[in-house]
Write a structure and sequence with these properties.
By secondary structure, the chain is α/β, with parallel strands linked by helices. The chain is built from ten helices and ten strands. The strands form two sheets. The protein has a six-stranded mixed sheet, with helices on both faces. Strands 2-1-4-5 form a four-stranded antiparallel sheet, with helices on one face. Helix 7 links the parallel strand 7 and strand 8.
């Protein structure tokens, strides 16, 4: 077991966002977390990363309780995130954004890691001196993924990777996510595009108003009438 949320309940002030959430990601797995707007998906990622502390329950990494560990400590232990809307430093170049992804590493594998990112995203090499804020949405998504991979994560958190992308770029993006997963990186992916997410995932969970309502192997969920009811409300 690489990651687990154990009966996690999270509040924003007096408002309960997550209630009794338990999920698990094993080493090398690709797990998707599905749900509509305001279902608690992004809050789940923030809780895993340490941006939000749960009121109750635990966050476990390698079976160790990291609930009260700071964000940099969790990243140093092998987490990385591709945040919603990319969150790049737009006034910095593509190269500089990628370098920031390796800031907590010792630097011994920097060149190797950079070459790996460039092999996945050849356009980032071509545009390495371009300001990240001047790139298209699809190109910015590449930078965000590349920046996360520069930290050599064992667990990659992805928040809505298809948001704002054209259908062609969505397909390309999911192809790259699958390739990253097949290289041995475990992925927990929050996504509203259930069909695309489940087509490449090993397992899935479905959230509704802060509670888990469905979970199972991705192939089973793709065929599930319960998923349609839980996810589409019908």
């Amino acid at each position: 077991m690489l990651l687990a949320l154990d009966d996690v309940t999270t509040y924003y002030g007096k408002m309960r966002i997550l209630e009794g959430i338990s999920i698990q990601v094993d080493t090398g797995e690709l797990v998707c977390l599905l749900g509509g707007n305001a279902s608690g998906k992004s809050t789940t990622l923030k809780t895993i990363l340490g941006l939000v502390r749960p009121r109750n329950g635990r966050v476990l990494l390698d079976a160790e309780d990291v609930t009260h560990r700071r964000v940099p400590e969790r990243i140093a232990r092998g987490m990385a995130i591709v945040p919603e809307n990319r969150r790049l430093f737009g006034y910095m170049t593509v190269q500089e954004n990628l370098e920031l992804g390796a800031v907590l590493r010792d630097g011994s594998t920097f060149k190797e890691d950079l070459e790996r990112v460039h092999s996945l995203f050849p356009r980032l090499y071509e545009r390495r001196e371009q300001l990240a804020g001047t790139m298209s949405g699809g190109e910015q998504q590449m930078v965000a993924m590349g920046r996360a991979l520069m930290s050599r994560p064992r667990l990659l958190l992805m928040d809505e990777p298809s948001m704002g992308l054209s259908p062609a770029l969505v397909q390309q993006n999911f192809t790259i996510i699958k390739e990253v997963h097949e290289s041995g990186v475990a992925i927990l992916m929050v996504e509203q595009n259930a069909t695309m997410a489940l087509s490449i995932a090993d397992r899935g969970y479905v959230l509704a108003t802060g509670s888990l309502v469905l979970e199972g192997p991705a192939g089973d969920l793709l065929q599930s009438e319960d998923l349609k009811r839980a996810y589409l409300g019908r």
